[in-house]
What we know:
The structure holds two protein chains of two kinds. By secondary structure, chain A is of the alpha+beta class. Chain A has three domains: 7-159, Alpha-Beta Plaits (2-Layer Sandwich), CATH 3.30.70; 175-240 and 324-421, Sulfite Reductase Hemoprotein, domain 1; 245-318, Alpha-Beta Plaits (2-Layer Sandwich). Chain A has 15 helices and 14 strands. Chain A has helices spanning 7-10, 20-33, 46-60, 112-125, 146-160, 190-200, 202-206, 228-231, 248-255, 276-281, 308-312, 356-372, 379-386, 388-395, 428-434; strands spanning 80-81, 98-102, 109-111, 129-132, 139-144, 175-176, 216-219, 234-240, 245-246, 289-292, 295-298, 317-318, 323-329, 343-349. In chain A, β10 and β11 form a beta hairpin. In chain A, α4 (112-125) runs antiparallel to α5 (146-160). The longest helix of chain A has 17 residues, at 356-372. Chain A starts with 6 loop residues before the first helix and ends with a helix. By secondary structure, chain B is of the alpha+beta class. Chain B has helices at residues 32-37, 75-88, 111-120, 159-168, 170-173, 215-221, 224-230, 264-268, 315-331, 338-345, 347-353, 369-373; strands at residues 41-48, 51-56, 61-67, 72-74, 92-95, 101-105, 184-187, 201-206, 236-242, 248-254, 281-286, 301-308. In chain B, a hairpin with a 5-residue loop joins β9 and β10 (248-254). In chain B, α4 (159-168) crosses α9. Chains A and B meet through α2, α3, β3, α4 and β4 of A and β1, β4, α2, β5 and α4 of B. β3 (109-111) of chain A pairs antiparallel with β5 (92-95) of chain B, so a sheet runs across the interface.
Amino acid sequence: MAKHETPLLDELESGPWPSFVSDVKREAQFRKENPRNINFQIPADAPDDLLGVLELSYKHGRTHWKHGGIVGVFGYGGGVIGRYCDQPEMFPGVAHFHTMRVNQPGGKFYTTEYLRQLCDIWQMRGSGLTNMHGSTGDIILLGTQTDQLEEIFYELSHNMNQDLGGSGSNLRTPSDCVGQARCEYACYDTQALCFQLTQDYQDELHRPAFPYKFKFKFDGCPNCCVASIARSDMSFIGTWRDDIRIDQKAVAGYVGGEFKPNAGAHSGRDWGKFNIVAEVVDRCPTKCMRFEGGKLEINNKECTRCMHCINVMPRALRIGEDRGLSILVGAKAPIVDGAQMSSLLVPFLPVEEPYDELKAVIEAVWDWWMEEGKNRERLGELIKRQGFQKLLEATNIAPSPVHVKEPRSNPYIFWKAEEVEGGFDRDITEFRKHHLR
Amino acid sequence: MAFVSSGYDPKEPMKDRMADIGPRHFDDFYPPVIKRNKGKWLYHEILEPGVLVHVSESGEEIYSVRVGGARLMSCEMIREICEIADKHCDGFVRWTTRNNVEFMVDKKEKVEPLKKDLLSRKQPGGCFKFPVGGTGAGVTNIVHTQGWVHCHTPATDASGPVKATMDVLFDDFTSMRLPAQVRVSLACCLNMCGAVHCSDIAMLGYHRKPPMLDHEYLDKMCEIPLAIAACPTAAIKPAKIDLPDGKKVNTVAVNAERCMFCGNCYTMCPSMPLADTEGDGIVIMVGGKVSNRISAPKFSKVVVAFLPNEAPRWPQTTSVIKKIIEKYAEGAKKYERVGEWAERIGWERFFEVCDLEFTHHLIDDFRDPAYYTWRQTTQFKWPSK
């Protein structure tokens, strides 16, 4: 017998897609039976009560979670989100139900040994429920009580050599795409860079000193599988400066139907015979390609590296060899001033350890934002408020047409005194000698 | 439930403290075939929905079987994933950025037994535990937020609408018949932890009633200036009122006409709750993307201003999404994302084709960007009748 009746949630236990309700019930049942004799450090019926409170929300159409309190581990200002239920008497198992963010490994690769260790800690000291993963990338341990926070952190760090992630006004846990580990498009080692910067900026990650949250995301190519351009204050997106490598024999393979276009992504429908002109050459946004006499030509100078041709013919076309990344800045979700996409700041940087050039840009941006940013103002909003020019000044980057889609259509330029011959100090008396009142 | 110490001594918190050690190094977790071939991959192919092969210049291959799953996951489920990974994948497994799990093997003949094993595992109600799919020109797993499971500001649930939507879109998870990939996302409030603002199809939880004011507690619970400053439309001002018992308290007043229901004030001040059974629901947004492929990344656009929270299965929401995907599947050209299709045929045609009502709510009136979304041209399409 379940602890609470959950007729509404029960309706989510049918259909083909995995049911989170069945899964939470499974954990509830496991804790009730406790076949491994775990010495549960928080109420064994926490998953039952989570279903109970969720059922109540399904009935009311409103959440039953209160604002978080300030809880955490000693010396850190982030990594733990306090959470309390607003019906603690009905659902004592989740009356205190804090979240811990665990900094996920690069590319989200795991060994089963690691995952089991994590489960050992979490089933004993927490609810046994997780998010794999949170939106920013962390492993989310969902629901424990205050007296377990230090214990969990101690076991994570001492037994698993594993740290917490970020929350609050600090550097949030950086995340990366699968990258060179298993992708031929990756222009740099996203995992290496993500790991090193995460290590180098541990202080920024654990101790909130910023005006607001700050996110790094690392995409190996312009396909942007971790959505860095939409979701991170600083987006590191792989790119190249030389030519797309062409294997003309493989091009012929695609044209002749030997290879499936787009790596077989469209095989669920008969789209007809592959037409390289219609599907690749004519779709190229810069029209820098030509297919003549069975040969594909690319005018690489005009290419903007959108990835379409490479995505369609991965066996024939490969990213260039002079690789690095572009840095774009300022993306955020809508709160408060509307959504923003990242804007191009640094067109190209090579990705070379120890990443000094890259870190110089990061730190110049932080210095400016920490000096000028208002409380809860994201980097993108500061750039909008003060202007892109101020960001260029702060980072000592020369303006270039690549920074804009188009030049301004108003002439309201904020000229500076030193840019105008003779400056702004003028003599009105001298002026009036030639211009009567 | 006797307290078991980890070794941590609260009297000496700094003793043996390990802090700022960061995440584990990724090298600890790579399958051997990945370790050997990192940076050497030549090309990949999707052999069938949910099964990818990557081929290295060394000649080695890695086969990945992608399965969907609920982001809210129990440790018992993780242990089952471990059991499968031990049995088939030498103890390695990975997750994707969209909550899929990938089981990787180094030989083609290991794929079928793995797939068979995955698909044989079902939950008591018959749901797949590990549906194989989520690749190529189809629908992959939904990225989403916490919703009523764990968040204090949501205007809808997350896990429930996601389960209901994926049930409806299941065939497109396990097949690749669409013109391009369709990324579906859900954020349960405007904070958009799920960053749904650049998705092909997005569900966004939204409040529609201004905050209630808990006058008696407001000044005790909140920094009033912070609550005022949090409002993007300057709808909040300081106020003094008399409580029924005659006590005068500092509080705030909200100009309801100016409120855009973003909930930013509630984030700063728990005495200003917005949540409401009738007020809250889902906004449907369409046409965003993050890839730079062919066209630049795009924001999603609001195409349905409000749908009610119909727990537990949100039928109106899922049917609107299904309808949009069917019309997209019919009308878009190969490689065209939802947003590119809508732009090519024109948004006026999009509303007609998808049989969605265009209401005044869908015309932007928020600050400067609004103007740029109005039509400054005589070029538009007549209804096709």
